[in-house]
Amino acid sequence: MGGIKADQDQAKAYSEMTKRVTPNAPLFKNIVLAFLVGGTICTIGQGVLNLFVAFGFSPEEAVTPTLGVMIALGVSLTAGGIYDEIGRFGGMGSALPITGFANSIAAPALEYKREGFVLGVGAKMFTVAGPVLVYGTITAIIVAALRWLLVGIS
Amino acid sequence: MDFLFAFLIGGLLCVAAQLVLELTSLTPAHVMVLFVSLGAVVSGLGLYQPLVDLGGAGATIPLPGFGHALVQGILKAISQEGALGLLTGGFTATAAGISVAILASWVAALLFDPKS
Q1: What are A83-103's pLDDT values in tens digits?
Q2: pLDDT, tens only, B23-72
Q3: Measured between beta carbons, which residues in chain B are less than 8 angstroms from residue A41?
Q4: Could you give the maximum distance between any two Cα atoms of chain A, in Å?
Q5: N or C: less crowded end of chain A, CB within 10 Å?
Q6: Are the beta carbons of B40 and B70 closer than 8 angstroms?
Q7: CB of A73 less than 8 A from some CB of B
């Protein structure tokens, strides 16, 4: 009997401990992973940027072609099934960089190929990218208009 | 040194996004939308460019950098062509990226099948 009681106490203590520990442990782990994955993708991007600068682009001019290369990289890794693997542990570290934006376009494009190239690939490409463009565009127009009216264009 | 700052700034932006994801009921798509819009607002306040100057690709590659590109593209277009720039500048600045994403994704869909 004493053994069962002790087991019950132990089980209770264990369940209390897991309650205390569980919500925090994955949170911390996920944040560290987001930092490492996001940081690594941006470091690769910096390498691409530096390459364009080495070829005579100004750092400002190099931003657009760098984004182009990173988007192409994100699409390629998605097509190879690799980006989804990175996304499994990277969380927002893989979703927030522009490669994640590219993944959000390429993944449904591949996935909905079976529904045809117009209503499948063409339409589903923008399942996530669509909202990003819609709200990005609306916010940017409002913000730029306010800045123009209140501060002026310098 | 630029690699270190790209890693730190890019990593920290992703940590901020991960915190929002973990501590709210928003989906990753919601967080992406939120951060593009936040980037646009911070850019309008004149506070995103310093982050770009410090972090380089660490600030331009994450989605807030996309919002920053939209706002700065519009402001540049306004300075060149007036009010019409409000409607043209954002897309001019981001057209290359969006075109690559559409073109590459369409070709990928043509050539590959989903892995899972």
Answers
A1: 999 999 999 999 999 999 999
A2: 999 999 999 999 999 999 999 999 999 999 999 999 999 999 999 999 99
A3: 10, 61
A4: 82
A5: N
A6: yes
A7: no
